[in-house]
Design goal:
- The protein has about 575 residues and is α/β, with parallel strands linked by helices.
- The chain folds into two domains: about 300 residues, 3-Layer(aba) Sandwich (Rossmann fold); about 240 residues, Rossmann fold (3-Layer(aba) Sandwich), CATH 3.40.50.
- The chain contains 19 helices and 23 strands.
- The chain is globular and about 70 Å long.
- The chain starts with a strand and ends with a helix.
- The structure holds glutamine (GLN).
């Protein structure tokens, strides 16, 4: 990347204390930045609020690009355990990210890139590589100005590359954490360098309502905001999360303690109607508050009034039917590990005007015979076996798939789910009792699922699955073709194993159809059983591309079959 220094901010020399490289083509004053920070506690929906702001601004014709700036030292999310951190979301360009990126993509209905995701690990890797290459010209490399300088460069690089007018930056963690301090400091410096009118700080805080008191308390929020002010970050807008609607007196208190005008202290209480959140924020003037602080002339903006329609379509009021979908996985204790699947089901709820309930099936419990398959599958109208890795829970998944195949219950197998379906079919239809995937049994007699050729040479973990968007050739006269309506589709992948090509013929001879494959190579991407109500497996993750008004065809197929 070409870099130069913001001239008035300093020269690149050993003697200068300034260090603020900017990417090629950067024009100061051309872009507006909105930082979304959290205080008091994490996990109160910063990602949803950031996505909502993006939606509100887009509705007014502004081009926005959201970034998640994450404070952990991992270079990307690829090595993170979804049980601790929630789902690993995969972008079309193959970047493995935090699940918030999924939320952004769904709300703005667009594809993001590696530029939209930043981690401490990524910044530090660059700094250390540059240091080894002598790029800091003999300077001692410091937290300020170097770490913050490189961080600001990433913020600005997103502006240049995305060509967006407004860059939204969600800072991971809460104010007061050690880890994200450099991100907050970089934000403070950016405001100074870009000018007050170009940078807006939004703080998402929490108002407690202890049961023993029966009233809302603002002290924790006040202290959180105070912490932010101490770091030189004066909030422009405060959003108060709470269980019940925030009382005006609480909003007034926050206003007094934070110097934020009352119209910019916004309440956001818990709501079952997730898709109403952008509208709830708009009704309280959040969009106007952003325009006010960034000196954006609202009169010059269009108003495409799409939000009301979107909200109405996505909020299912009178569902015509209720169905129960089982999800057999091994991280069922933390629902965030499968968040995109849940969202894809919600998209189908709106599409078909139905209520979809989810039953979490802990695959390990079937394995250890704590629970019988017939017992866990009771009342389940359709089953999803999601992606996964490793041995634990695998046999339980195979059992559930067998049940669906034999009892003609709609089934959607995603990635590992497809691979488990192949194992099940090989064992119980092809009669290969010891069939398995070499992922869990490297010495299996019948490795019906094995490593992809490109994966055989790879050592170590992190960023080396087959990752990102790839084209799929869809076979005509198949269920897949019926669902997609075209012969070429693009979906997102994250895997190392595939159907072993040596067994394809045998699978086909017993009625299994490979209805999607990678162009030019023999990698199978979709399987189906034509005689079954719906038995469909994808080597890719259709949940990553499902969007509110445009649900994934694979999920639509499953739900339609259940109805
Ligand atoms: N573990 C399997 C593989 O590596 C499946 C991966 C997944 O489900 N994302 O191919």
């Amino acid at each position: 990347m070409g870099e130069k220094q913001l001239s008035e901010l300093g020269k690149k020399s050993v003697d200068s204390e300034f260090f603020s490289p900017v990417p090629e083509g950067y024009q100061k004053g051309k872009y507006k930045y909105v930082f979304i920070t959290g205080s008091v506690i994490s996990g109160i929906g910063k990602g949803t609020v950031t996505s909502s702001i993006a939606k509100l601004l887009e509705e007014r014709g502004l081009k926005v690009s959201p970034m998640k700036a994450e404070a952990y030292y991992n270079v990307d999310a690829g090595t993170l355990n979804p049980f601790r951190h929630g789902e690993v979301f995969v972008l079309d360009d193959g970047t493995e990210t935090d699940m918030d990126l999924g939320s952004y993509e769904r709300f703005i209905d667009g594809n993001l890139t590696k530029e939209n995701y930043l981690t401490t690990g990524k910044i530090l890797t660059e700094i250390l590589e540059k240091e080894r290459a002598g790029k800091y010209l003999g300077r001692d490399v410091q937290f300020i100005p170097h770490v913050t300088g490189e961080t600001k460069k990433y913020f600005r690089k997103l502006a240049v590359d995305s060509k967006a007018e407004v860059i939204l930056i969600e800072i991971g963690g809460t104010v007061g954490d050690y880890e994200n301090m450099y991100l907050l400091e970089a934000a403070r410096q950016l405001r100074y360098e870009e000018g007050e009118d170009n940078v807006c700080f939004i703080n998402l805080t929490y108002i407690f309502e202890p049961k023993t008191l029966g009233e809302q308390k603002s002290k924790a929020a006040q202290l959180g905001i105070k912490k932010m002010i101490e770091m030189g970050l004066m909030p422009d807008i405060v959003i108060c999360r709470s269980e019940n609607p925030v009382h005006d007196t609480i909003r007034e208190k926050i206003s007094v303690f934070s110097n934020v005008p009352l119209n910019r202290v916004i309440g956001l209480h818990d709501s079952k109607e997730f898709y109403r959140i952008p509208l709830m924020l708009k009704e309280q003037g959040l969009d106007k508050a952003v325009f006010e602080t960034l000196k954006i002339d609202e009169k010059k903006l269009v108003n495409n009034k799409s939000l009301e329609k979107w909200t109405e379509k996505m909020t299912v009021v009178n569902p015509k039917k209720k169905i129960l979908i089982g999800i057999a996985g091994k991280y069922t204790g933390l629902k965030d590990s499968y968040i995109s699947i849940i969202k894809a089901l919600e998209h189908c709820e709106a599409e078909f005007n139905v209520k979809i309930e989810v039953k979490w099936i802990e695959a390990t419990e079937i394995e250890t015979a704590k629970k019988k398959v017939s017992e866990v599958m009771k009342g389940v109208n359709g089953l999803i076996v999601p992606g996964g890795y490793g041995k634990r829970g695998a046999e339980g998944k195979v059992e559930c798939i067998k049940y669906c195949r034999e009892k003609n219950i709609p089934f959607l197998g995603i990635c590992y789910g497809l691979q488990m379906a192949l194992v099940e079919f090989a064992r119980n239809v092809l009669g290969k009792k010891n069939a398995s995937t070499s992922e869990i049994d490297s010495k299996t007699e019948f490795p019906v699922v094995c490593l992809l050729p490109d994966q055989r040479k790879i050592e170590g973990l992190g960023g080396n699955n087959r990752l990102g968007g790839f084209d799929i050739e869809v076979k005509k006269n198949s269920i897949a073709f019926e669902l997609y309506g075209k012969e070429k589709v693009r979906e997102r992948f994250r895997h190392r194993y595939e159907c072993n090509p040596d067994y394809i013929k045998e699978f086909e001879s017993k009625g299994l159809v490979f209805s999607g494959k990678a162009p030019k190579v023999n990698i199978m991407q979709i399987i189906e059983l034509p005689k079954h109500k719906f038995f469909f497996g994808t080597q890719y993750h259709p949940e990553f591309t499902s969007r509110p008004l445009n649900p994934s065809p694979c999920f639509k197929g499953l739900i339609k079959a259940c109805l």
